[in-house]
Design goal:
By secondary structure, the chain is of the alpha+beta class. The protein has a single domain, classed as 2,3-Dihydroxybiphenyl 1,2-Dioxygenase, domain 1. The strands form two sheets. An eight-stranded mixed β-sheet has the order 2-3-4-1-13-16-15-14. The protein has an eight-stranded mixed β-sheet with strand order 6-7-8-5-9-12-11-10, covered by helices on one side. Strand 14 and strand 15 form a beta hairpin. It is globular.
Length: 310
Amino acid sequence: MLDQIKGLHHVTSLASGARSNNAFFTDTLGLRRVKKTVNFDAPDVYHLYYGDEAGSPGSVMTYFPFPNAARGKKGTGEVSTTAFSVPDGSLDAWAERLSKRGVTGLGRGTRFGDSVLTFDGPDGDEFALVEQKDDTREGWTGGGVSDDMAIHGFHSAAMRLKDEGATAELLKFMGYKEVDRDGDVIRFAVEDGTGANTIDIETVPGAPMAGQGAGSVHHIAFAVENRARQLEVREALMDTGYQVTPVIDRDYFWAIYFRTPGGVLFEVATNEPGFDRDEDTAHLGEALKLPAQHAHLRGKLERILEPIGD
């Protein structure tokens, strides 16, 4: 069993518009845009990162907003719900805030003993806010969100699968332990993580396979401290039979990728070097930052990329 993985690093999804995506995460949810860059493989598409003040591992939601992308189809083989941690007693204020901003899919409930508010993102993304009493991570108070309701980072991510067996075994190999069950949902957690330490698996045997599009999670990333730990994880996964990519430099972290038995794309990302490698922390996410291989396209990209505001 591995011990290098320390919970979630980030979650990356697809969107249909950059302006609406930016407004939802910075104004409605009050997160900080910590990086404005472009897709390595499609530089005419933004890669936008939202999180806490520094973009700490376990707090960062990232998006590829493909203009006018068709909406994804929900089903199995995907990350279904991304949940954020909020202070205890804050869900009434959040429900009022989201309702006033026209957010759809609002629903209250309880999961594994925690109070939960579910809601939709701009492209039908499935989100939840989970009240937590003991989350010591510092929240970011943007968009008029007060400290007593600020998001502290991820609480968990849920996967919807036809069969949990092989993916559950993979999570256990990665250092997660089964900690609870609630109906068709199994909860796994890792100790000493980023604070975003929980993964849920919902088993829906009769559901169709998901179709990726706007509102779909593209991949989910797990955190390791550094490149040495990442190489240990890569070797262990390959020894187990997984097809793992070489290490890829993503400017703000190094990444490896592999497809899970349930169909979800996993990434293992380093906590180094961080989002302040090319911007001072006080000004994260303000300027358009380009990977070195796309620097020569700056003039063109600044003309064609949709303005998204501050």
